Amino acid sequence: MIELNNILKKYDLKPKSYRKIGETTLIESDNIKYIIKKKKRDNKEIFDYLKSRNFYYYPKIVNEDENYEITEYIEQIDMPNEQKILDMIDLISLLHNKTTYYKEVDIEDYKKIYEDITNNINYLFSYYNDLITLIETKTYMSPSEYLLARNISIVFDNIALCKDKINNWYELVKNLRRQRQVVLHNNLQIDHFLKNDEKYLISWDKAKIDMPIFDLYKLYKKHGLNYDFEVILRRYEQNYPLLKEEKELLFILLLLPDKLEFQNIEYQDCKIISKIIDYIYKTRYFVLPYYSDNTNTTPEK
Fold this sequence. Notes:
Elements: H1 2-10, E1 17-21, E2 24-29, E3 32-38, H2 44-52, E4 61-64, E5 68-72, H3 81-98, E6 101-104, H4 107-136, H5 143-173, E7 178-184, E8 193-195, E9 199-201, E10 208-210, H6 213-223, H7 229-239, H8 244-255, H9 266-291
Antiparallel strand pairs: 1-2, 2-3, 3-5, 4-5, 6-7, 7-10, 8-9
Helix pairs in contact: 3-7, 4-5, 5-8, 5-9, 6-8
């Protein structure tokens, strides 16, 4: 609180009221509202780059010092989350469009991606194989163990599919010498999108430059069970079509099952396993039509 008061004094802000909103503080002063946030990193470089690419869809920075950032407060309008996530994906496709460039790569760049994913696939296979072997030695399974045992085949099916598809992907990319790069927000979730007269993305602390699929991957991992991502991906590709090798890699990453971490609380363990199984089934429904479509595009319903 003392540090916050010093910031208010430093920038001559005389709040009539202030309140905590998550990790930020809302300051209201003379009918003007500001958000004060402790910096996790200095975002000046990324914002300067976005400005140079004519992308201004983030809250205006009013003042900043080494530790705090003061931005304008965005009063958002109420809207259904289903519409909100489509508006957000429109903005992400614009971000990627405006910041695209091509990086020169060689076989070692793609080989590293291939080896990292292959190692993860092999690890997950060994992990689940050891886990189900142990469970099947028990005379009486717990409800969570029985739930996993009933569905373990679909886990192994996904792992085997990923192993096959990562080899296909590597054959596709090993002779490529350019890789598409964009600015990634890298922290996409529905609460990080605001809209009034304009659209805004907030919470840029994890922004970086990499392949465009990683924003889609993070968004799917966060909200994959809540929204129709076939519609979301189609909306994104209307403005920014993925390259074949990008889409192949995205789907492999989405299909990989999460590692199951038991909490040793039976009710919680059942919920965790159910979520993993639900994720696998929904992702297969989303991804598998792509592999049976000779046009290599996401099919419409």
